[in-house]
Amino acid sequence: MKKRSLIKLGVMASFVTLTSVLGFAQTNSKSVRIIVAFAAGGPVDAVARTLAEPLGRALGKTVIVENKPGASGAIGANEVIKSEADGSTLWLTSVGAAAINPALFPKLSYNMQKDFVPVSLAVNNVEVFVVNVSNPAKDATEFMAAAKAKKEPVAIGSSGRGSIPHLALLQLEYSTGVDMLHVPYNGMAPALNDLLGGQVSGFFADVPAVMAQIKGGRLRAIGMASKTRHALLPDVKTFEEQGFKSVDTNNWYGFFASSKTSPDVLKALNKAIQQSVVDPVALAKMTQSGAEPKSSTPEELGAILKADTEKWEKLIKLRNIKGDE
Hints:
CATH architecture of the largest domain: 3-Layer(aba) Sandwich
Number of strands: 11
Structural class: alpha/beta
Strand content: 15-25%
Strand order of the largest sheet: 2-1-3-10-4-11
Number of helices: 12
Distance between the termini: 59 Å
CATH superfamily of the largest domain: Bordetella uptake gene, domain 1
CATH class of the largest domain: Alpha Beta
Shape: globular
Number of domains: 2
Largest sheet: 6 strands, mixed
């Protein structure tokens, strides 16, 4: 194909994308709602509010963040399902409500395949294992050696049964062969408070959730549950580097819309979200928090959702984990 023809095709593709975005803005005058199925002030809420302004600019609309917490994400999910499928309501959720809940709750009130369509990733969040700075362990190898030597199982907190921190703990148990005492809490805050107070010995958390305590010298990061080290914690080795394989989690956040949303509207939303994630102000804010901003195509998010649903379902069924109703 001639160079001129390739340039022409590129211009046409850009024109089609721009037309879909403008068409969405012109045909739908409503503001856009981002539904967050968690309370205000949490990590998902923070990402939603960071992206709201650049997303509004990209769409030419007012973007509002609405918090609909409760029922492990089901209240927020159902808010999207019952709303008009015109692109004016988006669901920003973590991996838990999208890929873990289906295995935890047999009577879940929504179906990810039937009720929703993927729009785009927003961020990746890997898990880091942290201990109180008073703990003598300097890395995961030392921590697990001490845990193995104890007569009683070491207490490890989590933000709830079936949560990403709980599942990361199960991965660590399988990798090391060391049984630990899982202490589930109702959310991250009380688990973190008890770790700081010495009531539990360790905790898996999203990097942004504990970055301030790590930098402030109150917590020590001793292992990354990922394939690579984290840019803001370059001295913290991955579990695999320390000899513990298959301790690998990713608490990604992604945008979903009603499955009845038209392809043109989805294309416009995806383009706008991609622009928002690389907005300089939003990008800097999310990166500095420890999150890893990352957009995707709907197909890429769909593939991630499918893979994680299968991955976590296998582990949840193997350990017969039940969600907190």
